[in-house]
Structure formats: structure tokens, C-alpha cells
């Protein structure tokens, strides 16, 4: 088997085998068949990516077919939203089709089956049918209406179609085998009566085909070569094939159903019914609430099509269900926005900083880099004055050696500006700090090239000039659920796991360059995270959504509040964070990508407890120990985001990494 062959996923292997056995490439056709009863969510992106991805790979058409067979739950709003989401992801479909396009053909085929003695009208109650159908371990029994005559079945079915009966009075069932080991083959329902207005066919029909009857026959009508479904449809394949056996004619393309594992995401629910409950109960503002796992919600939150497609590609195509950590999705958007999002300064929890020796009436416009990851991004100017806002948690009156930000008696640099030194504070009656007074070194302007400007300090802070700052509403979104599997508890309702801190709205101050933003534009608020302009924005009211923080704040920590059950566990909890980081780094390069994401998040969390003095000796790690060097680079990135100022040793370490042959190490170096 060639290397190219090995790289194929199992669905691609099936297609390649079919082509090798005589199928023509021109006969390949795929479809994505959503039901328009809700908005698409992140779980659907896998099915979308597989079908449309195969279309791109083999230059084959992909149909978008709406499974609109239940008018009680389906709406045109959902059709429009689904089309918008798929197009936004960057995919194009060949034909826009609907199962309702085939209602007459499906009805005619059903009549044919009745005439052949392969379908009958059942008039039992739903409870009676359930009882006579048996269980997975107990065969079913024939119902009292199973042997109705063809004439009686035709008469009843036509009267069902003509609206003579109420909902639930009769159904049409396929006549297969009530003792079949697969319960789906025990005379499955083909039609039921639903007297509801249909969004496309209006009131033409009052009987509607079931999914199992519609699915395969629609595939056949459209000449679909490979009908790809999620894993829960595997038991349905036998019925899919039985229905096709009744209608397929020689010489026509016969669809082949194959199944893949669906995409399950931690801290998320994928049930459209439960997502609808969140909307109807007003837990969220709508289907496009940025906390929702819907594609429209992710788009409004600031996710990009590239990040979502990269996520689906990284997850891959599997045959077994598994749960993907949501941190992988967050990693993908961080990686994408790190390359593309302009850097700006914003203060979300402001405290006033007064530079006492800066002239009262002076202001300067200082040069700031838009994105160090993009050489073409250029520079902008930001205003500087005597009175600034900084983040409240960027100052402590007293701090230990791990604190790189502003404190009394120590120096830090203001990003793109001067070195300042904390001198005193002004407090209100309750002891809350209202002002921080400091002095600045006029010769220390960043980038001026003077000796004073080149001297190094450990911390760098972002800031905005009070006089020039713009007010903005910032919506800090977090995960909607606090439990990894909110709908995975039999004894608890998923609503019990709602995160009360999933949305915080703060009044922030941003630099004036953001006065001309447009809806959907994305930015990195330096040292905070990635944000985008919300749909509610107006020129007089800036509104930003938090897309994701600069690092995973939900990374799992080593348990420290439980008594160890053996000495090995006890010794591990006593180990220094830097030692654990080194150990995690040793095997980093041998891990699969999804596992690397988890380990990286763990390293980032541990890095919060590492000092620069502990990390610096590891800059001299041997070149062949690539994994350790990657772990050191990840740790360094956290310290720099905490405010650590770069020095010559740090810059040399980064420069050496950028020249390395390992792409993972180079990527981490580029990130900082």
C-alpha cells in the first residue's frame, strides 16, 4: 500500500475501491441532507466537510437536499439559515433540492408496493403497535391488519391521502418480517397522517413519508453514488437497501450508504430539540447567540470559516463515536486569528494612571505595529497623554517575584511607549484604588533607539489615553455549560449545568483607531484575547464580542485537594511546575495533533506558576531535544503575555527556534 493510499480515510478508500472496480469518476455524486427544523451546529460541520470535501477532491457534484417531510417542525427560516451557513463555510452545492420534490414519486412507489403485497395500512394505536413489535431480544408478532387485502389497503391509503381520517387513525407500513432480528425491519412505517401546513407544498398533502422511506429513494432519484450518514444510521442500512431493492432498475446508479462517527464536543449539546429549548426559554438571545454551538452563533462570536474547517480536518473521519475536547476548536480559532487579526489596545477593567512628571497639556501620537505576524499589516498611531487607563489587575501595591506588572517602586514599560515607575496610590474611603501615580523616563520611548529606550524591564502593559479613548460595550462570552457532558446524566436535566458566568457585559475603553470598525471585523485586544464587532454595533455604540482568550482558562489542573492513594501520586503533586512541563515536553513531538492540543493547554496552565528565573536555564536545552524546547517556548509565551519583557536571551532563544527544521517549534516561536 502506497503512502498516498495510507493517508486516505476509510470513506475515501471505499470510493477508491469502487473506482478501481469499474465505477466511473463522472458517476460520483454526493449530497448533504439537513432537516430544516433548526439551525446547523458545529456537529453538522463534519458531515458538511465530508460530503463537500469529497466533492472538491473528486471534482464531483454535491446536492443540498432538504429533508422536509415533517411540516410540524420545519420552517423556511431554517432553510434560509442552512443555506447561508454552508455558503459562509465556503462550500457550493450543485443543485438545491427538497424531499418534497419527490412526494408524488414516493406516493406512486408506495402504491406499487401495496399492489405487490409489500405494504399495508395498519389501524392499531401506537401503544398496540409498540407492544406487538417486540424487543431486541424478543421477536414481534403479526398485527391484526397485516393481512388486509390489496384492494382494502389501496382504498384506505387513497382515503388517507384525501384527508378523510384524523392524525393517528392509520399508517402505511412496509410488509417485511415481524420476527426479523433487526427491529427496524419489523414492518417499518412508511407514511403517517399530518394535517399541518407545509412550507413548500402548502396543504397539497396530508400524508407525509417517513425518513427511512424517503432517504434512499431520494438518493436514487438524484443518482447519488455514496450516501454518507452518521453512525446512528448504521442499523438503518439494511432497511435502506431493502427499500432500494423495490425500485432500483438495472443500469441505474444504486446509492451506497456508509456511516461515519458523528462529531461530539465537550461542554456542548448537539440536540436541536434542546438547543430550541434554550432559545424558547430565553436562556440565550436566539439561534445566533454567540454562546450557542450553531454555525450562526460561532460566526457572530467571531469564528472564521478557515478555523472551523481546520477543526473538522484535524478531528478527521472515524468509525467510532468519541468526544472531542472543545479546547481543540478554541485552539483552531486562536491559530487563525493570531495570523490575521490586527492588534489594538483596550482596557476592560480600568483604573486611572497619572504620570506625574508628564506635561499637563502635552499629547503624542506614537507608532504601534498592527500585527507582528503579518509584515504587510503596517503600523498605526495611538495617542499618549498624562492620564491613562490600565487594567486594574495590572497593578499591585506589593507583589512577589512572579508578578511582572506594575507595583510601587518598580518599573514596567507601557506598550509602544515609555518606561514608568510606580510611586503612590490614591484610594477612596473603602480602600479601593482610584488612581495610580507614577513617573516616566522621557528618554525611554519604545523604538527611539536611545540607550535609555533599549534598557530592559520585565513587564509590559497595554493602556489607553483617557482623553482619546472610546467607550465600548464588551460582551465577555464563556462556555454555556460547566459540565463536560451536560446532557450525559440520566438523573439530571442538562439545564442544571448552565454556567451563570457565560456572559459578562462590561463598559470598556478602546483606542480611537476603532472608531471606524465594521460589523464582523476581528481584532486582538492585546494581552486579553480576540474580539469581533457584534451585529448590534452602531457608529454611536461600539459593541465587541469576546471570541476566545489568548489561552485556555479551562485547562485541567493537577488534583491537589485530594489525599494521594500512593506515594507516587504524592511525589507528583509536590513536583515543581517547571519539572512537569519538561516531562510533558519530552514526548510532545510524537503525539497526535489532538493530543498535542491538550498537552499544550496543560503546559500553559502550569506556566502560570513558573518564574522567569526557573525557565531561563532551559533556553540552553540541546537542539535534539525538540519536544522540551517546544514546551519551553509555550511556557515563555505565557510569561510574555503576563507582561514579561523580552531581553537578549529571550530573543536569541526565539531566533534559534525560528531557524529550526521542526515546524512545530517554528510555529510556537512565530506565535510569540
TrEMBL record:
Residues 125-145 are annotated as: Disordered. Belongs to the class-I aminoacyl-tRNA synthetase family. Keywords: Aminoacyl-tRNA synthetase, ATP-binding, Cytoplasm, Ligase, Nucleotide-binding, Protein biosynthesis. Residues 460-534 form the tRNA synthetases class I (E and Q) anti-codon binding domain. SUPFAM superfamilies: Nucleotidylyl transferase, Ribosomal protein L25-like. Residues 341-441 form the Glutamyl/glutaminyl-tRNA synthetase class Ib anti-codon binding domain. It is an enzyme of class 6 (ligase). One of its GO terms (cellular component) is cytosol. GO terms for biological process: glutaminyl-tRNA aminoacylation. This is Glutamine--tRNA ligase. Its EC number is 6.1.1.18. InterPro entries: aa-tRNA-synth_I_CS (IPR001412), Gln-tRNA-synth (IPR004514), Gln/Glu-tRNA_Ligase (IPR050132), Glu/Gln-tRNA-synth_Ib_cat-dom (IPR020058), Glu/Gln-tRNA-synth_Ib_codon-bd (IPR020059), Glu_tRNA_lig_a-bdl (IPR020061), Rbsml_bL25/Gln-tRNA_synth_N (IPR020056), Ribosomal_bL25/Gln-tRNA_synth (IPR011035). GO terms for molecular function: ATP binding; glutamine-tRNA ligase activity. Residues 28-338 form the Glutamyl/glutaminyl-tRNA synthetase class Ib catalytic domain. The lineage of its organism: Bacteria, Pseudomonadati, Bacteroidota, Flavobacteriia, Flavobacteriales.
Amino acid at each position: 500500500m502506497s503512502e498516498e493510499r495510507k493517508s486516505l480515510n476509510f470513506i475515501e478508500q471505499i470510493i477508491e475501491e469502487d473506482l478501481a472496480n469499474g465505477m466511473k469518476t463522472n458517476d460520483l455524486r454526493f449530497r448533504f441532507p439537513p432537516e430544516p427544523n433548526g439551525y446547523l451546529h458545529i456537529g453538522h460541520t463534519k458531515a458538511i466537510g465530508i460530503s463537500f470535501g469529497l466533492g472538491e477532491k473528486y471534482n464531483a457534484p454535491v446536492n443540498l437536499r432538504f429533508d422536509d417531510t415533517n411540516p410540524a417542525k420545519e420552517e423556511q427560516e431554517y432553510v434560509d439559515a442552512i443555506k447561508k451557513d454552508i455558503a459562509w463555510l465556503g462550500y457550493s452545492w450543485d443543485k438545491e433540492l427538497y424531499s418534497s420534490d419527490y412526494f408524488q414519486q414516493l406516493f406512486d412507489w408506495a402504491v406499487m408496493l401495496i399492489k405487490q403485497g409489500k405494504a399495508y395500512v395498519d389501524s392499531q394505536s401506537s401503544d398496540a403497535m409498540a407492544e406487538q413489535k417486540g424487543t431486541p431480544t424478543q421477536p414481534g408478532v403479526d398485527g391484526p391488519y397485516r393481512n388486509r387485502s390489496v384492494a382494502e389497503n389501496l382504498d384506505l391509503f387513497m382515503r388517507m391521502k384525501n384527508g378523510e381520517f384524523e392524525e393517528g387513525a392509520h399508517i402505511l407500513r412496509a410488509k417485511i418480517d415481524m420476527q426479523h432480528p433487526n427491529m427496524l425491519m419489523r414492518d417499518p412505517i412508511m407514511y403517517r397522517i399530518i394535517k399541518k401546513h407545509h412550507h413548500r407544498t402548502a396543504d397539497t398533502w396530508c400524508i407525509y413519508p417517513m425518513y427511512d422511506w424517503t432517504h434512499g429513494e431520494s438518493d436514487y432519484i438524484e443518482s447519488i453514488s455514496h450516501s454518507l450518514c452518521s453512525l446512528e444510521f448504521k442499523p438503518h442500512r439494511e432497511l435502506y437497501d431493502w427499500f432500494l431493492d423495490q425500485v432500483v432498475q438495472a443500469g441505474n446508479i444504486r446509492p451506497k450508504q456508509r456511516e461515519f462517527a458523528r462529531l461530539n464536543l465537550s461542554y456542548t449539546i448537539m440536540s436541536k430539540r434542546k438547543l430550541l429549548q434554550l432559545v424558547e426559554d430565553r436562556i440565550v438571545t436566539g439561534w445566533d447567540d454567540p454562546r450557542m454551538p450553531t454555525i450562526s452563533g460561532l460566526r457572530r462570536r467571531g469564528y472564521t470559516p478557515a478555523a472551523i474547517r481546520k477543526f473538522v480536518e484535524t478531528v478527521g473521519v472515524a468509525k467510532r463515536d468519541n468526544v472531542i475536547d472543545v479546547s481543540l476548536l478554541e485552539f483552531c480559532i486562536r491559530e487563525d486569528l493570531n495570523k490575521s487579526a490586527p492588534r489594538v489596545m483596550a482596557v476592560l477593567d480600568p483604573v486611572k494612571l497619572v504620570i506625574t512628571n508628564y506635561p499637563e497639556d502635552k499629547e503624542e501620537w506614537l507608532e504601534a505595529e498592527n500585527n507582528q505576524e503579518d509584515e504587510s499589516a503596517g503600523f498605526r498611531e495611538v495617542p499618549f497623554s498624562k492620564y491613562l487607563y490600565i487594567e486594574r489587575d495590572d497593578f499591585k501595591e506589593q507583589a512577589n517575584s512572579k508578578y511582572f506588572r506594575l507595583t510601587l517602586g518598580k518599573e514596567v514599560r507601557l506598550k509602544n511607549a515609555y518606561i514608568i515607575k510606580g510611586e503612590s496610590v490614591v484610594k477612596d474611603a473603602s480602600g479601593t484604588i482610584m488612581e495610580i501615580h507614577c513617573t516616566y523616563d522621557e528618554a525611554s520611548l519604545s523604538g527611539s533607539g536611545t540607550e535609555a529606550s533599549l534598557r530592559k524591564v520585565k513587564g509590559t502593559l497595554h493602556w489607553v489615553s483617557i482623553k482619546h479613548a472610546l467607550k465600548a460595550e464588551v460582551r465577555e462570552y464563556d462556555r454555556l455549560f460547566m459540565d463536560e457532558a451536560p446532557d450525559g446524566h440520566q438523573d439530571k436535566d442538562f439545564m442544571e449545568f448552565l454556567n451563570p458566568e457565560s456572559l459578562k457585559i462590561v463598559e470598556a475603553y478602546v483606542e480611537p483607531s476603532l472608531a471606524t470598525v465594521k460589523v464582523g471585523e476581528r481584532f486582538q485586544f492585546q494581552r486579553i484575547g480576540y474580539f469581533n464587532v457584534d451585529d448590534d454595533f452602531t457608529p454611536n455604540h461600539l459593541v465587541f464580542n469576546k471570541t476566545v482568550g489568548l489561552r485556555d482558562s479551562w485547562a485541567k489542573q493537577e488534583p491537589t485537594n485530594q489525599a494521594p492513594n500512593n506515594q507516587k501520586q504524592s511525589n507528583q503533586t509536590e513536583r515543581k511546575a517547571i519539572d512537569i512541563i519538561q516531562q510533558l515536553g519530552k514526548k510532545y513531538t510524537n503525539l497526535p495533533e489532538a493530543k498535542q492540543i491538550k498537552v499544550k493547554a496543560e503546559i500553559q496552565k502550569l506556566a502560570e506558576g513558573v518564574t522567569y528565573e526557573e525557565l531561563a536555564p532551559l533556553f540552553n536545552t540541546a537542539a535534539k531535544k525538540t519536544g522540551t524546547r517546544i514546551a519551553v517556548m509555550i511556557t515563555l509565551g505565557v510569561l510574555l503575555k503576563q507582561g514579561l519583557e523580552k531581553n537578549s536571551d529571550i530573543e536569541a532563544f526565539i531566533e534559534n527556534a525560528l531557524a529550526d527544521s521542526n515546524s512545530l517549534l517554528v510555529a510556537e516561536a512565530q506565535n510569540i
